[in-house]
Amino acid sequence: MITNWKQYYRHWQQAAKNWWQEYPVSVIIVGFCLLAGSFLRLYRLPQTLMFMGDQGRDALIVADIFRQRDLVFIGPVTSVGNMYLGPFYYYFMLPWLMISYPSPIGPVYAVALVNIITLGLVYFWGRQLVGEKASLLATVLMTFSALAINYSRFSWNPNLSIFFSLLMLYALWRALSLSPKNWLLVGLAAGLLIQLHYVNLIMVAVAGLAWLWQIFVHYRQKNWFVRTHFWRYSWLACGIFVLTTIPLILFDWRHGWLNLSALGGIFTQESSFADRNIFMSVFTGVRGIFGRIAHIFTTLALPNLEPLLRATTINIYWLRVSIGVAVMIAFGALLIKHTRLACSQPANKNIDRQHWLSWWLLAGTAIISVIALAFYRHSIFDHYLLYFLPILFFMISVLVTQGTRSWQYLAVSVLLVTFGLGNYQPDIWKSQDNNLANQSMLAKMIATDLPAGNTYNLVLLDDSHDYYGSNYRYWLSTLRPQLLPPELNAQAQHLFIIDATGGADLATSDVYEIKTFPAASSSSRLQLSNRPEVVYHWKNLYEQ
Fold first, then answer.
1. Which of 23, 104, 298, 471 could lock onto 56 through a cystine, CB 3.0 to 4.6 A?
2. Is the dihedral of CA 433, 438, 443, 448 positive or negative?
3. How far apart are CA 266 and CA 249, in angstroms?
4. Mean local confidence (pLDDT), 183-203
5. Which has the closest alpha carbon to 225: 183, 187, 167, 170?
6. 522 has which bridge partners?
């Protein structure tokens, strides 16, 4: 075994040496990107962390897994359709929260670490997908992307989509170009990707079409299917995909196929994708294509473009559309050009044959994404599209690294300047008023004011309308575990109302917990120094 480890170490040592000798500039740039990317994603993380309702809910659920041995079989509920994701992200959080408990910072560092590793993989896997120059440029873009940075600095299930999307893209390319054995990795990546966000089903659709394409290419070569064990690996990949979602399937089975019904409702009753009038549905989808192109190809790459040009008279919407359409047309033209040259001039050495397949995968994913999202009638938020970031940066990098060397220098220079301006965010390290330290102090103040052993409930009044106050509930669960859920509000001996607005009228409030708290009298008013939040402590008179 020692000999094997020595051989393994020597292999990678020699590979690193060869890489340095062959691509010294790339080594320096990738090293710089990893250092800069780590700094951008980790610096002042506790002081700037966004720990809101969704993060508090996740931390409460994961903490109960190791505090109360309460295993979970479903993940977070979606904002549209009332569907549940799989529990993968909760179990990803588990070891990290155990390490940092009671602070919820552990999973945040884990998310940041995964996204830092992704930077290196964009280069190393990208070299095989799109070549040395394009992968190097894509790594730079991913390193300094405002969206990639921001969604690496807090804990949330969509924030891992970048890594698993890149993994699935790479596995698909290997399955199509090297060996069907890689369908096993595709199945695993797909099963985990859809547990992060259901929009990631688009990547599953891409994988399905790629699988059909591989059958079409080789359907006359019966010996190929036997020699490569294509069908065996395909069935095993399906098995792995199902295996990753077994907890969710069991939950659905026990609860009358709740998820399946909700999914059907999205396509029929809720009209998320379809309209009762088929012609109106098609018209809505076609009309939505331009908006989705603008979002996918421009807003993701240049999120600060609108604030940058707000003072000008430029029509920002059509500028975003124009940039997106230009990227799609240019990439399509490049792909068609190389395909025609390959068919008409098989011996032409100037054709980039090695990366054709990955180019088609990138183009196919872009087309399917635009069409699917164009027919989606609800709002599309940036975190829905994190899966598309690697595809987008690969496409842009391929475009600007084509042609003569002088053209490449000019195109890359213009791109980097534009990208820098469109992703500049000076307030990234500005301390949040409602940071972990302030939340923890407020929770400790409430716990100190609460008599030992008494039950209590909590209400949060702020602009988010998250009355449940999951983030504060998490902190209090680490101090006073007698916190009751809202449905048992009448049984609580105490009610704490956190007024973050500073001017709530409790007497006329329609909040359920406030209205239903029995025979309450305002017994005390708590406030931290230099903090705007006011905490009202009500006592249940019937429980005295």
1. 471
2. negative
3. 19
4. 94
5. 183
6. 538
369 contacts 386 by C-beta, under 8 angstroms: no
Which structure tokens are listed for 215? 């059958």
Task: Count CB-CB contacts under 10 A for residue 34.
Answer: 17
Residue 31, number of CB atoms within 10 A of its CB: 11
Closest CA to 170 of 147, 146, 199, 138: 138
- Average pLDDT, whole number, for the chain? 86
Contact 93, 114 (CB under 8 A): no
Long-range Cβ contact pairs of 423-428 (< 8 A, separation 24 or more): 423/144, 423/145, 423/146, 423/302, 423/303, 423/304, 424/146, 424/304, 425/146, 425/149, 425/150, 425/304, 428/40, 428/48, 428/149, 428/150
Q: 358 and 129 in contact (C-beta within 8 Å)?
A: yes
Report which residue type is found at 427. Answer: D
The structure tokens listed for 468 are 């449940």
Q: Which amino acid is at 437?
A: A
Q: How many residues does the chain have?
A: 544
Structure tokens at 417: 């300047």
**CB neighbours of 88 closer than 8 A, spacing ≥ 6?**
75, 192, 195, 196, 244
What is the per-residue DSSP string for 56-108?
HHHHHHHHHHHHS----S--PBPSSSS-B--SHHHHHHHHHHHHHTTSTHHHH
Query: Which tens digits make up the pLDDT trace of 469-489?
Result: 899 999 999 998 888 887 787
Please confirm whether the linkage preceding 158 is cis (ω < 30° from 0): no
Q: How far does Cα 459 stand from its chain's mean position?
A: 29
Contact criterion met (CB below 8 Å) for 44 and 123: no
Considering only CA atoms, which of 404, 365, 391, 402 is closest in space to residue 138?
391
Specify whether the backbone of 404 is left (phi greater than 0), alpha (psi in -120 to 50) or beta: beta
pLDDT-based confidence at residue 1 (cuts at 50, 70, 90): very low
Q: Are 33 and 393 in contact (CB under 8 A)?
A: no
